[in-house]
Amino acid sequence: MDHFLYQDGELFAEDVPLSCIARQVGSPVYVYSAATLRRHFGLFRQALDWTEHLVCFAVKSNSNLAVLKLMGDLGAGMDVVSGGEYRRAKAAGVPGERIVFSGVGKTVAEMRLAIEGGIRQFNIESEPEMRALSALAASMGAEVPVAIRVNPDVDAKTHEKIATGKAENKFGIPISRAVEVYAEAARLPGLKVVGIDVHIGSQLTDLAPFRAAYAKVAELTGVLRAKGHAITRLDLGGGLGIPYRRDNNAPPLPIEYGAVIRETVGHLGCEIEIEPGRNIVGNAGVLVSEVIYVKRGEDRDFLIVDAAMNDLLRPAMYGAHHDIVPLVEAAPGAAVQPYDVVGPVCESGDTFQKGAELPGMAAGDLIAFRSAGAYGAVMASEYNSRPLVPEVLVEGDHFAVIRARPTFEEMLGRDSIPAWL
Ligand code: LLP
């Protein structure tokens, strides 16, 4: 459930009409609902309330400082994958002891930043990375907590670009070599092995792959403990999918996901970490956009809107579906017609949806792309020299701009022309 609902025929974010935000901030604009963020975080916390746990918000899904501050104030940890994300988590007031650092290509500079600033654990993804971290930590006189990410070779049954748990993917160390890698980790200076990490992919709509992966982690926990490793923490990654369509095929709920965790690893007495991103923030955000033109094609009508693939990349990149709804609710029984909803960018891939069923639309009408809170603003670019879309956070009956639209002066000011040109 989210807090984007029609009231008196108008789409609201909590108690604020989205049209009011579009009027004041301009279009396109990303709008997030604080109540929805809190609610979704609470669902994960509740799903794991049977054990000691930390819900680490996947910063990559939405890294706006206000969103991170809101999550951090609820007690969330953070899962970061770059020095930049680490800095964001810290800037939002999250203590290092609640930050886990994932990612296949952490540089020494990034690792140093996190050791100096405080870190809950590094999720190590390869032996070279493990040796580099050991050398660095030892040189700093530090002993850093580590989990090793294992690749369980499980098919997450999601889009191939966001599946990460098969042997062919670049992530983690093959689970078949885990014993030898843990043995080396235990020997290396500067590292303190605390647990096992796994993440098999994103937008999973079935619990079976989680169950398979976590069962393998449970088995590995037993094997490693028998070899003398103190496995006290399991980081089970993120990935629980969200409903992108309002139909009856909703993915499992956090509570059901929590039950799978309990069933597979609950008996081990480990502290549990999870790293959800999309499930917390995806349906807590919409992208509001204005119709620029309605264009008659040979055999179809195009709705040319002022948002484009650079602002919301998911449809172009993954063929992803985002429900498109008018801000003014169609009258019951009103006629709908199909539109190809497209942006102004000069590529045919700049198509949000073909044949979207909408009431008759005209230039100046406002629409919302739903489920745009995760992997929306964070994946935006200035392609075609389009300014990054501003972000707004709604709380009850008020809202604040949490990232302003850059001015063209700022955009142009980042470039410089060498004196010799
Ligand atoms: N932990 C790790 C190690 C991850 O790689 C990811 C996502 C997450 C947690 C969070 O997964 P979530 O709960 O959000 O599914 N840009 C793509 C999604 C990429 C996900 C990458 N990793 C999209 O728009 O669908």
TrEMBL record:
Keywords: Amino-acid biosynthesis, Decarboxylase, Lyase, Lysine biosynthesis, Pyridoxal phosphate. The active site is at C346. The modification N6-(pyridoxal phosphate)lysine is found at K60. Residues 30-373 form the Orn/DAP/Arg decarboxylase 2 C-terminal domain. It catalyses: meso-2,6-diaminopimelate + H(+) = L-lysine + CO2. GO terms for biological process: lysine biosynthetic process via diaminopimelate. Its cofactor is pyridoxal 5'-phosphate. InterPro entries: Ala_racemase/Decarboxylase_C, DAP_deCOOHase_LysA, De-COase2_C, De-COase2_N, De-COase2_pyr-phos_BS, Orn/DAP/Arg_de-COase, PLP-binding_barrel. Substrate binds at R278, R314, Y318, E347, Y375. Its EC number is 4.1.1.20. NCBIfam families: lysA. Specifically catalyzes the decarboxylation of meso-diaminopimelate (meso-DAP) to L-lysine. HAMAP family: LysA. This is Diaminopimelate decarboxylase. It comes from Paracoccus tibetensis.
